[in-house]
Amino acid sequence: MLSLWFVTLLLVGTSSAGTPAPVSQNDLVGIVGGHSAPQGRWPWQISLRVYSYRWAAWVHICGGSLIHPQWVLTAAHCIGRKDADPSAYRVQAGNVFLYGDTKLLHVNRVIVHPDYVNAFLGSDVALLRLAKPAVCSANIKPVRLSSLSDSITPRDQCWVTGWGAISMFGSLPPPFRLQQVEVQVVENAVCEQQYHNASRHRHRDRRIILDDMLCAGSEGRSACYGDSGGPLVCKVTGSWRLVGVVSWGIGCALRDIPGVYARVQSFMPWIQQHMRRYTFVPRAEGREWAPQWGEELRGARPFRGKVREAAMHRLAQTPPTPPSRGTSLTDDHELHDSAKRGRAAPGSPGPPRQPARTDADPEKDPETPVKVGLPALRMRFPAYGMTGGPLTCQVDGTWLQAGVVSWGEAVSILTSLGPQPHTHVNWILTPELGALGLGILGLPWPLLLAGLFLLVFLLLLLLASCILMLNLLVLALSFLSSMVHGAPAPGPALERVGIVGGREAPESKWPWQVSLRLNIRYWMHVCGGSLIHPQWVLTAAHCVGPEIRSPEFYRVQLRQQHLYYRDQLLAISRIIPHPNYYIVEDGADIALLELEDPVNISSHVHPISLPPASETFPSGTPCWVTGWGNVHDGESLPPPFPLKQVKVPIVENHLCDAQYHTGLYTGDSVHIVRDDMLCAGNKGHDSCQGDSGGPLVCKVKGAWLQAGVVSWGEGCAHVNRPGIYTRLTHYLDWIHRYVPKVP
After folding, report:
1. Could you write out the three-class secondary structure of 638-692?
2. Domains 19-278 and 494-736 share a fold
3. Strands (E), 5-44
4. Nearest C-alpha neighbor of 129 from the set 259, 278, 247
């Protein structure tokens, strides 16, 4: 199974300019065995972003390193396309929290290394030029590149950083803080042997770890999925040097399988060539970020379009297969791929050979057939996206299909259609299906088709009968249930925790909003709430019950614009759910949380006033609901998790109850919306799963009053299904048993 990791290619390209290719699971993008990085420790670390229309936000896809105020070095597989649109990318710099900074830097040039095919074949580097130079500070500072004279050994102190997965199956939790881990460099020869051992020596005839690669990591300490392109830095003569770019690997932090990085030293001429070409940088001796243009370049050879010989060697392991009966392929046969070709890639595993004979250059004339010699491995390969296409050969003046484009490692391995026992011609052209025109069991096709239609008709008839019986059963059960209980079936889907149809709340508004956290691997947001007293928080009972946990499992975060960023969590000393609460549909969905210490009241943190018992909140009262929940059914709030607000209309209880009866078989005499509940919302404007316990506030005579607590509902912002809230005026006496009245 391990060998499959080696032959998996990065075959999925981008669908449009500027959309990066999905990252293969072998491409490393995270940190295992590390811990949170201090702010300013790695000031060159950046986050590469693309725009997600689903989340309506710039989302992190890869890491990278600032190597000059205007240049970023990352992995080529993070970009994928050599013609990628620079405007499709953004860069975040200077913040250890992913999504903690909304000021993103624009990119105006993307340069992928010309020899890049996929990460396994090396040259996995790309340069991004920023539209404007980054302003250097304590948190933003370019890293110095490893010089050609540097010798990186296992004794050097090296670290890798990123925002990726913290294990093979565990993503980095919010607030997505930059992780760091110290790793040991592994000599290429040792790493090569380890990867051959991992593949059970199925690739003994080719090199896996190439000269432009570098290995680092050990069991429990490595990069992982989520931070491709990120930096591997080592301390050389007292200063940090960028020695590697996170590239690929097998799994994450497995025993004797280090991570593989692009070796920065191998690409110094290419990097400096493009930075010189597109940037005017005066010589700045003594400044750590200044490129040393005058440095003598020893031993570095820029690659010039040659595909790695290791990738070519794989095809030599299997002799070519003839395309049809009585013929065989030789160097003189002409192979033609009917689709457009990729860049020519001559090369061979042994001594240098002459370039492949071609009648024309496919880049200039893609319609011209390309002659190749299979045994000599001098060929041009089908481009990605051509899987399933035909490989055709001209034999004695006749075009024959010799294969189907299948898979390969930089080259395309072709499924043979020859006559040998291990090929597929006999399967395609069996006498029963082909030559004789007969179907299964030797019966004529018309008779078989008639029988098939009859069988389908009988199955449909049986299915219709089953559906009819099920409908009758549902009607009977609905009638019986309406005599017992009129509310929809209980379940988590009814409990409300989010905002639909709203927008991000201004930082100056809703100073009473709180986030209730539960300790699940980290302090995860589970519900909203409202500060109603310097030492008391109001929330929904279903957020903490009906089985009550100890208060030590919960924390409260006061007004916060973005979840998880700059957390200052407060301990809870007591949890008091209403004694009548059982399920949300039965009401009494209200609970009190007592803080260990009173909070300091300010313009940013302030309690919300409770309504007088006489307040009814009639239709037309301007009301708002706030929270960090889902933005649609089944669609959670994307990072950076901003507080959302939406204006909702109050719906009278009798009208709301009638709307909830729509489409149900519940009798009208059974109340779904009870007296201790309040309805608000309409189609497109509502709370949703993700912020139960949050406040519904209304402005009455110029003052904000809390009218309700987000409780439950059917779906989110659906027609005839307003959100249902706990009506606070019904529970004022119970609240004031514990909470002192504010003068």
Report:
1. CCCCECEEEEECEECHHHHHHHHHCCCCCCCCCCCCCCCEEEECECCEEEECCCC
2. yes
3. 30-32, 35-36
4. 278
The gap between the terminal CA atoms of the chain, to the nearest Å, is: 71
Which parts of the chain have pLDDT scores under 50?
Answer: 1-29, 281-384, 409-422, 430-442, 478-498
E strands, 455-553, in order: 498-500, 503-504, 513-520, 522-533, 536-539
Is residue 675 among the annotated active site residues?
no
Give me 106's structure tokens.
């624009």
State CA 589 to chain mean position distance: 36
- Distance, in Å, from the CA atom of 163 to the CA atom of 179, rounded to the nearest integer, reads 6
Closest CA to 147 of 362, 293, 352, 321: 293
Total Cβ atoms within 10 A of residue 52:
12
Q: What is the pLDDT of residues 279-320, one digit of tens each?
A: 654 443 334 343 433 333 333 333 323 333 333 333 333 333
Active-site annotation holder among 47, 687, 692, 711: 692
Active site residue 396: no
Closest C-alpha to 220, from 193, 191, 256, 194: 256
**What is the full DSSP assignment across 197-224?**
HHTTTTTTTS-SS-TTEEEE-BTTBEEE
Query: Active site includes 668?
Result: no
- pTM beyond 0.70: the answer is no
Domain ranges of the chain: 19-278, 494-736
Q: Report the chain's C-alpha Rg in angstroms.
A: 33
Query: How much is the pLDDT for 18?
Result: 34
Among the options 68, 542, 562, 661, which is catalytic?
A: 542
- C-alpha pair distances (Å), 332 with each of 372, 374, 395, 450: 8, 10, 10, 50
pLDDT at residue 386, rounded to an integer: 58
Which position among 115, 589, 657, 686 bears the catalytic label? 589
What proportions of the chain, in percent to the nearest 5, are helix, strand and coil?
15, 30, 50
CATH number, domain 19-278: 2.40.10.120
**Long-range contacts formed by 8-12: CB under 8 A, 24+ apart:** 9/118, 9/120, 9/384, 9/407, 9/408, 9/409, 9/410, 10/77, 10/80, 10/118, 10/119, 11/384, 11/385, 11/387, 12/384
Q: How many CA atoms lie within 13 A of 574 on its CB side?
A: 8
Superfamily grouping for domain 494-736: Trypsin-like serine proteases (2.40.10.10)
Nearest to 73 by CA among 247, 288, 329: 247
Q: Which residues contact 250 (CB under 8 A, 6 or more apart)?
A: 2, 5, 26, 195, 198, 257
- How far is 308 from 311, CA to CA, in rounded Å? 6
* Among 66, 65, 48, 44, residue whose Cα is nearest residue 139: 44
- What local confidence, expressed as pLDDT, does residue 147 receive? 84
| C-alpha–C-alpha distance, residues 496 and 692, integer Å | 5
Distance CA 443, CA 421 (A): 27
